[in-house]
Amino acid sequence: MTGQRHAATESHRPFTEPVRLDLSDPDTLRQLWNLQRASYAVEARLIDFDGIPPLHETLEQLRASDESFLGIRDGRRLVGAVAWIRLPNDALDICRLVVHPVAHRRGVATALLDALDSIEPAELTVVSTGTSNLPAVELYRRRGFVPVGKRQIAPGVTVTLLERTYASASQPIDNC
Question: Model-level pTM?
Answer without folding.
Answer: 0.85
